[in-house]
Design a protein that fits this description.
This protein is mostly helical. It has 19 helices and no strands. One of its GO terms (biological process) is response to bacterium.
């Protein structure tokens, strides 16, 4: 029998309830926690260059003429703090810095779709594990590459991107076998919240390392931690509940029975109907739009804090991290709320996804624009940027999990597709922002914030119009037989 038009087909309330299978110490929550640490390190390895770059570049004395008239007065609470100056300095101009910051994404975009496809073939465990392992190795090589020349540094960052490119599709692919529909928001928000936590910890920690030691140790410390994590991941994780060594029988049965109507046994990927699916393009547009703001702030917030608000390196690291701490809290809480609304309040999946995406994209747009108009009010500037990034956390339980709603069997491939488009802002956003802020005036930064907010607004409206919460026809077994 065909379902009613607009009816939510995700089988939520028919399946065994999770109350009989405790979350504490369960295999699925252990996977979420270990994945959380993995994404923690992944983002630490990704953003540490944003802080270290401030210390790697020789101060540009020629731009000092702009400081007095257009930028806020020096704002520093620290005086005569011990400062390490042994790190090598490089004479890279603003455009070169933009290319260095963007180079990571040139590798990252290449492995998105292959990562999703490979994960569906060989499983996500090896792909995710070696993705982070490879990124860690290239992070350790970063100081050497910087010494050899800017071309080498760009190449190493692009290679790091290649390694990280497979990680999100691989994780989505693993969750298609591990996450019961009623616990999707919770489990995915725990694992992906690690990314925000990695930003929270690595930004101030990188600032402190640069301040008291030397910028090279930023790369050595995080690179070594990534390799350590890899050993635990390879030892403790399995691709599916069936192959897990220590999972309880009750938990295995609970997961498998909750997913039995949602997964496809087809070997071939239905590329044509998949790429023609409007709900998929709704996710693509939302993902692209959200990432424009996210990546622009991620790579350039330390620069904004230093050049406009005039915070020193130590304060810069802590204040740049504050927005991501808010975002981390928001991701965890919104994941719990989203599943509560679906399970206990009988909200439809599509309603929850659309509402959370609207909050997570329109909220940040409003506060980001506001941040450009408060002049040198340091407290308000930090507060507005923090609120903007925090509200973005709602998107994890919005469009970000929607891949698993519309096609659980192909979630890794879908994320590869949407993340390919969503990587373009990481490549062009910092370059455009650096080009718009040559003189580092407040007006120039307002333009950067305006562009990001407009793109966010468009993405939110598009998703609200065209998203779906149902498993699509092409994503279930037997589709080709009709």
């Amino acid at each position: 029998m065909e379902p009613e038009e607009g009816e939510d087909r995700t089988p939520l309330l028919k399946e065994p309830q999770p109350d009989t299978v405790p979350a504490c110490c369960s295999a699925r929550y252990n996977l979420a926690l270990l994945a959380c640490f993995g994404f923690f390190l992944l983002y630490a390895l990704r953003v540490n260059l944003s802080v270290a770059l401030v210390d790697m570049v020789e101060p540009d004395t020629s731009s000092a003429k702009n400081v007095t008239s257009n930028v806020c007065p020096e704002h520093s609470s620290t005086t005569n703090v011990p400062r390490n100056t042994t790190g090598e300095k490089y004479s890279w101009d603003a455009d070169t810095q933009g290319w260095i910051l963007g180079s990571f994404f040139y590798g990252y975009i290449i492995t998105q779709i292959p990562g999703g496809y490979l994960a569906s073939r060989i499983g996500g465990k090896l792909l995710l594990g070696f993705g982070i392992f490879g990124t860690s190795v290239f992070t350790l090589l970063t100081p050497l590459a910087a010494n050899l020349g800017v071309g080498y540094l760009i190449a190493v960052r692009a290679l790091e991107g290649l390694g990280e490119g497979v990680t999100f599709p691989a994780m989505h692919s693993m969750w298609s076998s591990w996450a019961p529909p009623l616990e999707r928001s919770k489990l995915l928000s725990i694992s992906y919240a690690g990314a925000q936590l990695g930003t929270v910890v690595s930004l101030p920690l990188s600032g402190l390392i640069c301040y008291y030691m030397n910028w090279v140790y930023v790369f050595y410390i995080f690179g070594a931690l990534g390799i350590l994590w890899w050993f635990f991941w390879m030892l403790l994780v399995s691709d599916t509940p069936e192959t897990h060594k220590s999972i309880s029988h009750a938990e295995r049965e609970y997961i498998l029975s909750s997913l039995k109507d949602q997964l496809s046994t087809q070997k071939s990927v239905p590329w044509r109907p998949m790429l023609g699916s409007l709900p998929l393009w709704a996710i693509v547009v939302a993902h692209f739009s959200y990432n424009w703001t996210f990546y622009t702030l991620l790579t350039l917030l330390p620069t904004y804090m230093k050049e406009i608000l005039r915070f020193d390196a130590q304060e810069n690291g802590f204040l740049s991290a504050l927005p991501y701490f808010g975002c981390w809290l928001c991701i965890i809480l919104s994941g719990q709320i989203a599943d509560y609304l679906r399970e206990k309040q009988n909200f439809s999946t599509v309603c929850v996804r659309k509402c959370f995406t609207l909050i997570g994209m329109i909220g940040p747009a409003v506060f980001l624009v506001a941040a450009g108009f408060i002049g040198c009010n340091y407290a308000l500037a930090v507060a507005f940027v923090t609120i903007s990034t925090t509200l973005g956390g709602f998107c994890t339980s919005g469009y970000s999990i929607n891949h698993l709603d519309i096609a659980p069997s192909y979630a890794g491939i879908l994320l590869g597709i949407t993340n390919s488009f969503a990587t373009i802002p990481g490549m062009v956003g910092p370059v455009i922002a650096k080009n718009l802020t040559h003189n580092n005036t407040v007006g120039e930064w307002q333009m950067v914030f305006y562009i990001a907010a407009s793109i966010n607004l468009f993405g939110a409206i598009f998703f609200a119009l065209f998203a779906s919460g149902e498993v699509q026809d092409w994503a279930v077994s037997g589709y080709h037989l009709h």
